[in-house]
Each structure stands twice: as C-alpha cells, then as structure tokens.
C-alpha cells in the first residue's frame, strides 16, 4: 500500500522556528542595542538614564499605538505633524495661559484629544467616502491642521501657566516620569482594543485582504474610519503631553514625529502593506529608536554619524521585518 506523506513535527518545526524568530526579532534587536551600549559605557545602564529613555519614548509611544491601527489596515497617516500643531495650540489656549482668560485645567487633555479625533474622523471619511488614497488625504488634512494652528498661534505662541499641568509634564511618580506612565496607560488601552474589540481584530483582515473582507459582508469603511479616529485621539493626547512638557503651544511641536512614528511601527514588525503587526511590537520599535538615540550620545557619535547609523539600523530592521513578505511585495515602486 502506498504510504501518504503526513507533515510531522520535523517538517513543521522549521516554519514554527522561523515564525518565532520573526516575532521576536525586534525585541532581540532592542536587547542587542541595550547590551552593546551598556558595554560601551557603564553610565548608560543606570536608573537615571533609564528614566531619560522612558521620558523621551513617551510621546512617540502614544503616537505609535494609534499609527499601528492605521498601517495594519493598509493605510497611512501623514497628518501627524499638522494635527499635533493644532491640538497643541488648542490645549495651550484652553488651560491657564498668558493670552486668554480660559482655564479648563485637566479638561484641556480630553479637549486636545477630541480635536485630534475630529481630524482623524475627517481623514477616515475622506479616504472612504471620497475614495482619496490615504497618502494624499492625510497629507492634505495635515496641511489644513497646520494652517489652523498658525491662525491660533498668531505672532506669539501661548505660554502655559498652569503649575499643576507643568509639574505633571516634567515630574515623576514612584520614580518614573509622569509622561511615561501616561504612555504606558495608552499602551494598555491599545493592547485591549487590539485583542478584545472588532476594530483590533478586523484590522488584520482589512489590511491582509480588503476585497475578501468586503465580499464577506464586513463594513470595511466603518472600521477604517474608526481606525483613523482612534489614531487621531492619540495624536491629540500626544500633542497635549508634549505641550505640558515644553510649557507652550507651538506649531512646530510635531516636527519630525511623523517619520519617527512610522519608522517605529515598521521596525516593530508592522509592514506598510498592512495585514499583520501588533501594538506590542510597535512599543518595542519606539524603545529601539529611543535607546539608539540615547546610546549614540554616550559613545560620542557626531550628529552626522548618528543619523547615518540610525538610517543603517532602520534599513536593516525593515528588511528583516519584511523579508517573509518579499513574494507578496515583489513589485517595488
């Protein structure tokens, strides 16, 4: 009798091993960087420097959590910098400041987040209702938000004079930066949404096979809009956090944040094509960039060399993270 081949443990093992390595790759890269910088300079591996790293990673982490949901569904959000500018100015203008007699106190945080959510909702509606590619839709929305921020700013950016909010932005609780604790809370919310809500679960399906999702009756447009709105909420909150740290509302508060956020998400294992990735991986990507930037200072790298090294590491990380998708993404434009 002719025997039929059945895949056993030995045939399945290589695939499982590759999958495990691919999933743990970003974390292994982070550990390697951390150990390398610690060996290069003992001052790197101190509690004080850990606080510095966590503080610098707080705002990027909040942004990356939201961006993960957008990229995983196969879209992109290039409105981060403009939205942060508008939300920063709103936050500074509705708390105690040197320009207006308005003082909402802590309610300034949800106000900034709400404005970000409105811009995110608008992004989603333009993409789904007007069928404008997310690249162009969010780029245009970012310009609109930046223009609104400039109008609110006027000739002089408003200075935040609320001592409680200033202390929150600069202070620590239980030895950890307050902004890092706020970012950790956002990470927990992101993990919950990812694991236990339809927005999180359907994002994989929409990014992996949108046509199949539509054919199966899934309301793709609704969840796309919801993803953009959720990201917008976190962008607004991140802008308020950065404003509380700096003590003012400024149109340039989000400068450089967009590229760093997208890079962290991709380094964490979420491909730009969508369909896979996780909030946890994005958090690892954010920490990787924060450790890299911090470590470059300790080894005495010049700014030019630092940018070159960062670019090389980012390129390697992206190649490794997307290597298993090389057949699916065979066409490179």
Write the layout of secondary structure elements.
Layout: H1 9-40, H2 47-72, H3 80-94, H4 108-129, H5 134-153, H6 163-170, E1 172-173, E2 176-177, H7 178-196, H8 198-208, H9 210-215, H10 220-246, H11 257-267, H12 279-298, H13 303-322
Antiparallel strand pairs: 1-2
Helix pairs in contact: 1-12, 2-7, 2-8, 2-10, 2-11, 2-12, 3-4, 3-5, 3-10, 4-5, 4-10, 6-10, 7-8, 8-10, 11-12
* CATH topology type: ABC transporter involved in vitamin B12 uptake, BtuC
Q: Distance N terminus to C terminus?
A: 52 Å
Largest sheet: 2 strands, antiparallel
Average pLDDT number: 89
Order of helices and strands: HHHHHHEEHHHHHHH
Helix amount, in percent? over 70%
CATH architecture: Orthogonal Bundle
What is the domain total for the residues? 1
Fraction of residues in β-strands:
under 5%
What's the CATH class, please? Mainly Alpha
Descriptive report:
The chain is mainly α and 333 residues long. It has a single domain (27-321), classed as ABC transporter involved in vitamin B12 uptake, BtuC (Orthogonal Bundle), CATH 1.10.3470. The protein contains 13 helices and 2 strands; from the N terminus they run H-H-H-H-H-H-E-E-H-H-H-H-H-H-H. The protein has helices spanning 9-40, 47-72, 80-94, 108-129, 134-153, 163-170, 178-196, 198-208, 210-215, 220-246, 257-267, 279-298, 303-322; strands spanning 172-173, 176-177. A two-stranded antiparallel sheet has the order 1-2. A hairpin with a 2-residue loop joins strand 1 and strand 2 (176-177). Helix 3 (80-94) runs parallel beside helix 5 (134-153). Residues 329-333 have low confidence and may be disordered.
């Amino acid at each position: 009798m002719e025997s039929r081949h059945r895949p056993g443990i030995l045939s399945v093992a290589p695939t499982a091993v590759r999958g495990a390595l691919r999933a743990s790759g970003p974390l292994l890269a982070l550990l390697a960087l951390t150990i390398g910088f610690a060996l290069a300079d003992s001052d790197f591996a101190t509690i004080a420097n850990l606080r510095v790293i966590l503080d610098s990673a707080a705002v990027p982490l909040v942004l990356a959590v939201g961006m993960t949901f957008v990229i995983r569904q196969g879209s992109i959000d290039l409105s981060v910098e403009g939205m942060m500018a508008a939300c920063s100015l709103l936050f500074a203008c509705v708390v105690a400041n040197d320009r207006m007699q308005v003082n909402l106190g802590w309610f300034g945080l949800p106000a900034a987040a709400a404005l970000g959510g409105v811009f995110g909702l608008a992004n989603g509606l333009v993409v789904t209702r007007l069928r404008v590619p997310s690249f162009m839709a969010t780029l245009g929305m970012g310009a609109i938000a930046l223009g609104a921020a400039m109008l609110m700013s006027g000739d002089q950016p408003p200075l935040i004079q609320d001592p409680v909010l200033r202390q929150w932005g600069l202070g620590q609780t239980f030895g950890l930066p307050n902004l890092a604790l706020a970012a950790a809370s956002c990470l927990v919310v992101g993990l919950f949404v990812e694991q236990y809500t339809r927005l999180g679960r359907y994002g994989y399906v929409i990014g992996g096979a949108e046509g199949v999702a539509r054919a199966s009756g899934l309301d793709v447009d609704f969840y796309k809009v919801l993803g953009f709105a959720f990201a917008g909420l976190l962008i607004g909150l991140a802008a308020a956090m950065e404003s509380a740290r700096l003590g003012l509302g400024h149109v340039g508060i989000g400068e450089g944040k967009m590229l760093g956020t997208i890079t962290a998400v991709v380094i964490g294992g979420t491909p730009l094509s969508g369909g896979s990735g996780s909030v946890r991986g994005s958090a690892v990507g954010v920490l990787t960039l924060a450790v890299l930037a911090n470590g470059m200072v300790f080894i005495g790298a010049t700014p030019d060399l630092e940018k070159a090294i960062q670019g090389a590491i980012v390129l390697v990380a992206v190649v490794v993270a997307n290597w298993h998708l090389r057949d699916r993404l065979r066409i490179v434009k």
